[in-house]
Design brief:
Chains A, B, C, D: GO terms for molecular function: aldehyde dehydrogenase (NAD+) activity; L-glutamate gamma-semialdehyde dehydrogenase activity. The structure is a homotetramer. In chain A, strands 10-9-8-11-12 form a five-stranded parallel beta sheet, with helices on both faces. In chain A, helix 6 (146-161) runs parallel beside helix 8 (207-218). In chain A, strand 2 (51-53) and strand 3 form a beta hairpin. Helices cover 37% and strands 18% of the residues of chain A. By secondary structure, the first copy, chain A, is an alpha/beta fold. Chains A and B meet through helix 6, strand 7, helix 11, helix 12 and helix 17 of A and helix 6, strand 7, helix 11, helix 12 and helix 17 of B. Strand 17 of chain A pairs parallel with strand 18 of chain B.
């Protein structure tokens, strides 16, 4: 894995060369709010991630070491809060009343404040050096190509732009309907939950936690945020940026911990709502533990259907390659399965996909480590699939070579396994595809979350301008849009003003 | 309890007199769809309640006898489905696909069908004899004054009127936002959950189950409905009315069972959503069992605040009396506590309330049996309150006399116990009221569900034109309005159409 | 024209036969509110149409005779108000304040009243005998097939269903946005205009005036309604129905007059808004006279495009025939021009259309008199078209035969004239069609009002569930939907409540 | 008027002193896009205002000289387009198709482009030196205090913030309702008008034209903008800023002309919509000329009511002073009349208002020239009022002294004239105030446009977050909010997709 070693190496060499001007250099490359430099974090110069609670950055009794996914070096130490240390977090959450930090009838100036914070943060994040800072920081902990990492930061930046000026208060738009008599009117408000929790995964270290965090804040909630420790350094830095843009120190707590401690915190602090993004297994457990006071954006199993009309093969093979292998297939929306009408078999699609997959290389992280599954597990899964009659490896199917990815992570080439549909259907679970109902019918007969349809369809569009999230589940959470923020981070409250006057000549009626 | 006995008696006598013309008489008093006559149900002529599943009315291996709350006679037998008999219900639910019976892209003609069903049902229910039929039937099982029972039926009728014509399809209104390039547009739909369950309590035998049932159906779900067996006869009759108005037999199942069996059914049939209206204790258990796939409209603890401005004492004493004692205080919204500024102490308010409470009598059911708490329990609770220093009985505080209400139910006079606020506050739970923040401030600093504010405010407004339900809980369910139906009975689904064309001169980009 | 003569004849004969039982017969066939019997109006038994103002039906100094479009007999006399008689109408309008008869803050119980009126009127109009009554009455004055006339009544009935119950008050839903400080909130209301006028044409004697009238009333306006005298008998009867359903006598005035008198009325009474449906020529004059206080739904010039994909020829020829010739082409949405891709020339489409057009016959009014253009004018227009090189008559092109349609009306067979596109384009006005941009592109590059797209597209869908009206004009009015009612019949009013409290420690700032 | 003379004088002296470094100085004080320096414009160094059409800045055959409202010097020359020179403007407008430059189905990337332009412009305008530049430029042509001028710029800046990111495309949100059968769905879009015109007055040289201009552009229109020549220099500079932020040169034309020429342009270019802000007289004429294709935000006659509860006299006298005299009373929303309940007469309110008015001085422009009425006219008007029995001057009532305001403008002290209500009412026009219906009733019985109610109410709130504009007129235009932009700058277009499939077994029906 010479390139990556040498990247580190060269960086170190460069650091030496530029010393004693290193400080100045830091100032050139690192934004003022930042406490780390993405390119300089290494085993010999590890970064520290802290917690934030009750307005202060704090450490903990324990450090949890994170290893560099590209070379296995311990390169980040995270101050993980222990079960015995959660009291300040519980106290902090409990300071937030049930009616929130603001709501349409209380402290409305805070809506404006969040408009201002968003304006400033959007502008700061939009500076080339800040975009670059976060893109590179994302790359260090959640390896993906620079383009993919940059896109994640840009989407986050656009999201902040969407809530400049008065747009936060516009989220709190209410409605009213005339009542039964003069002086009566019923009002439907969007009300905050008050103290809330946010738990987010490793694959989008910035976008997922930032968008949910801001959504929660906009609507008047006080969140405690926990990001997967492997990548929490990114949001730790982002919170510093937000503080610099005016985020009040009391409004957000930030905690690093293991799952057991977080579970304990949730049960003790009893947030009115918890947003969980992550695996379905944990989601279901949490849903039961929290008795349903939860919204979930769980892992998708994402599929694509190519109908009988063969067209635009070059374009579609490219979209398939990107949807399946960008970010090493670790997007929530990564294409897991491709249903292909037989007409496509002679179209050259699979050959083109093979070629495209072979362009991917570790050097530029167009393929990289898988943070949740080991190589061995992936091989085992593939071998199980290959036991199905008629199945075969189309391409890939082998571990990556010449790398220093640590064994706890996966390192596998972009791989496609062909399985005949008839065999899948023996399991009886996919009755939908048995009938030839491609096209529009599929939309009316499915409940998939965010769905793309049409010749330019893809599975991995997760921008800030359309709802992204599951469907068909009352606990399902969306991310990103005004609609998502309102539905996830607030509830309906009805107030009927009935201010009179009393009817003239009101007389006491009989009891009923 | 001579009056009630003689009511029975007279009815029986009348029945004898009019025999053999009884059949004709039934036709005069009982709507065509009905299988019971509210005034004739009695220990000697008991009514039967059946279940409906897979398009057929069915009985069960067991009858559960319901006793007349006014005289303890076994007067209704309910075919309660046993744990061993739930298979047809499980199968029936499983026939409904996850994408529902209809959705904005599938079977839209069903939205129109439900507009027609609502039109017909609204008209049928609006006929004086049908209003009367249901009001009297409600009275028999959930004793309240004729006025209160009639109001429940009228609200249900108005609700149906609200969804005549195209109004059901208007509930499925979606929105769309322009995409990034020609041919792309993102669409936000309201999507059904598919198979769902509805569990409702005894206090509003018609309004709660009917409104939730129709809401579920409008949005494309297939519900199984369970109403508290004590009162399920009312909805059993209503489903017959709905069938007559065109409700397809496959669209709704109706089950009578105990809680254990229903729990089993939920776990086996695994409805995508369950609406539960009832006690908080059961609600929390269900929420955990169903891992949060639930929405709740749980029992409220409802309070009223009288601020420092004393005015309109006659009117307010009447509202307090109605809010506290109508339906024997068994409305979800019944006034449980009244906070009164000291200025009111010399206003005569309490004296007026006492007088009003004394107008209530068993004869016209302006006071009646309490179906969930025994007399002994109420006395015990009162005695506990009276141990608080300074507390005292203002009025009531004694069991009803001269009645034949069975012992399993409560029979207690309208009662008010005074407790000094300072003592309540020793428990530390009501910090809100310590400060003199009466008026508008209270609204901004609370999360109560449906809230009335102003001189004409009450706690027990539960009509069809404004949201009724809790706030502050992500699982909270509303009832009644278009907003409530959309938020409770459907979820957001995002479909992005990206139909092209491809950009002219599209060329293969580098991998990312 | 034997059939029609004999229809009259038979009716007369029947009338004789059933006398003296005529009264009983009237009761069988005519609804209680009605003052005419559609089948019995004739030259010998003419009907009378009156005016309604200030709560009373009134006549006028002059009768205007309407001739039967099928045989030229004077069969209806209309009490047309003269210029000298408009004073009561001016006074009546002026009694309505600028803030309307109701608005979200005033007399909200009137929203409920209109929900009730709509419920009752929907039910009454939905009775088979009432549907039949209005369908036949429409046929007598605006000849079209029974099916077409019935459809007009049914759409009107569905419209009324849409505004049952609380749906009228839901139209007055307002919104509010949090202000800059506690106590401030800005509210956007839909406010009525107050006194308004409605002027509607001959082609939909019931649907257009009824839908606009009710929309105006729902939002709190007081309308004076003028329908083309040729057909005003239909709305005269409908207003009687509405009165019976609870419409307050003071809420609507109904006037018959010529255009000059109506113009005078508008200038004197100065309604805050006038809705005009009719010819573009009159619309533009009125717009200037009323200085733009007008909304217009003017005559469309409606076209259909058949793109290069030839399919479903039978279906499409049927749609083309219906769109072009139903109601003798007198719908606002009638297909005036058909653009056909050359691929269709050998599809048999034109031959099929010819055959379908030949099914039409005067006997069942699938073709009938044209009320605004004489036969001679149509022939002249056709001859002008035929001067264009390459143009030809495809079918029709001749006057109807064997009829007694009076000369002031047109009587012409269903006709299609083919004109080569290249010739049309010489005029330079249709640059759009020069390029081969069929399909979706057309939608993005046009401003047509209500537009149907897709294989099942038609031009003449004018139901109650989607907006019908022009686009691209700030004066453009829609009809039918909640959206249309809100935009046409109300305006935005913003009220900012700023109820304090004042900031603590407010101190006098410097002047600015 | 020594201070102002010396301001000029000092500026000139400074300019001399800093020469030859003037260029560098310009760079310090003047933004890069600017072609003028607000502090340096003078009779000896006059500024030039050009026109912009078809992508180019152009002059004209004629200069119109604007005099400095503070000293009468000719200090700005405006290239006013003559009647013979309008051809390029007509041609430019005609290049914009009726379907606009973009719409929800065409060129959606332009919505994003306008989000970007707004983001950049909001940021640029938010820079302290740019805020200062525009505030001072506004002061030079529309004299008001620095605070007031700055506020105008800040509101404009906030408005731009509101449409960052995706917020422009969110304006184009459409809705859809399920149709009658599979494949049918009706869609309501907001569609542009295409070529449009905007005409705005002198009093808010930046805010009014900028907000309307951007609203028009956001929705897809191509506007030609005409601002009162006296102040058009401000928007001329703003358009340069917008170009620098990415505004395409073809999207906006900017014209200076007299009213006659503009009228000619409107008639020849025939814009689909014209937004006019200005005097009611011109508005009505334009409305007739343009046959109602117009929306109006005309001069308000704004009043304030003080009800019987006397409170917060200091605060209210300050609000009254600001509402009446800030910007020398030239805001559209300036308080023209104050209705005062008699309870206030002994409150000291009028005395306090007098004192506050006397704080105003020409030096800081807290009082300044009136650009539309001469001093003589104001005196005449006052004298007419004083003929009313019982009326008297409360304060003011005299011309300003020691000033060099030119005679064509007005120079008058802040003035209040008391008129007994009983005398006003003799005219019979104010029946509302005869009854003692103060408070909430007033809102339900009025049609005033933007209305403030409550103890903190004012007349002159014209921010970017709530609708500002008249009510009660179908031509009424709002400014500022998303709601206003959508209703003013777009129209409803309905497209019904009916894409099939055909019903199975479709068979040819009979003709109807």
């Amino acid at each position: 894995m010479s390139r990556l070693v040498s990247r580190r190496h060269l960086a170190a060499a460069a650091a030496l060369r530029r010393s004693p001007a290193a400080f100045a250099s830091r100032w050139l490359h690192t934004p003022a709010f930042a406490t780390v430099s993405p390119e300089e974090i290494s085993g010999s110069s590890p970064a520290e991630v802290q917690n934030f609670v009750q307005g202060k950055w704090i450490k903990s009794a324990n450090w949890n070491w994170i290893v560099d996914p590209l070379n296995g070096e311990k390169f980040i130490k995270v101050a993980e809060v222990q079960g015995s240390e959660i009291k300040p977090f519980v106290e902090s959450l409990s300071k937030c009343p049930k009616h929130g930090l603001h709501n349409p009838l209380r402290a409305p100036e805070r809506y404006l404040m969040y408009g201002d914070i968003s304006t400033k943060a959007a502008h700061m994040l939009g500076q080339p050096e800040v975009l670059d800072f976060f893109a590179k920081l994302v790359q260090r902990v959640s390896p993906k190509s620079y383009q993919q990492a940059l896109l994640e930061v840009q989407v986050s930046q656009k999201f902040l732009e969407n809530f400049c000026g008065d747009q936060v208060r516009f989220l709190a738009r209410s409605f009213a309907v005339p009542g039964n008599h003069v002086g009566q009117m019923s009002n439907g408000y969007r009300w905050p939950f008050g103290p809330v929790a946010i738990i987010t995964p490793f694959n989008f270290p910035l976008e997922i936690p930032l968008l949910q965090l801001m959504g929660a804040l906009y609507m008047g909630n006080k969140p405690v945020l926990k990001v997967d420790s492997k990548v929490s350094i990114v949001m730790e830095q982002m919170i510093r940026l937000l503080h610099e843009c005016g985020l009040p120190a009391e409004d957000v707590d930030f905690i690093n911990s293991d799952g057991i401690t977080m579970n304990k915190l949730l049960l003790e602090a009893n947030p009115k709502m918890t947003l969980f993004t992550g695996s379905s297994r944990v989601a279901e457990k949490l849903a039961a533990d929290l008795q349903g006071r939860i919204k979930l954006e769980d892992a998708g199993f994402d599929w694509k259907i190519l109908g009988p009309d063969v067209q635009e093969v070059d374009y579609i093979s490219w979209v398939c390659d990107q949807d399946a292998y960008a970010c090493s297939g670790q997007k929530c929306s990564a294409q897991s399965m491709l249903f292909m009408h037989k007409n496509w078999s002679s179209s050259g699609l699979l050959e083109k996909m093979k070629k495209l997959s072979e362009r991917r290389k570790l050097e530029d992280l167009t393929i990289g480590p898988v943070l949740t599954v080991t190589t061995a597990t992936m091989i085992e899964h593939m071998n199980n699939l290959l036991k199905i009659p008629g199945s075969k490896v189309l391409f890939g199917g082998e571990p990556l070579e010449n790398h220093s990815i640590p064994e706890i992570y996966g390192a596998f080439k972009p791989t496609a396994v062909f399985v005949p549909l008839v065999e899948i259907l023996k399991n009886g679970n996919f009755e939908l595809v048995t009938k030839e109902i491609f096209g529009q019918e599929v939309l009316g007969r499915s409940v998939n979350g965010t769905t793309y349809a049409g010749i330019r369809a893809r599975t991995t569009g997760a921008p800030q301008n359309h709802w992204f999230g599951p469907a068909g589940d009352p606990r399902g959470a969306g991310i990103g849009t005004p609609e998502a923020i309102k539905l996830v981070w607030s509830c309906h409250r009805e107030i009927i003003y009935d201010i009179g006057p009393l009817p003239k000549k009101w007389a006491l009626p009989a009891a009923t």
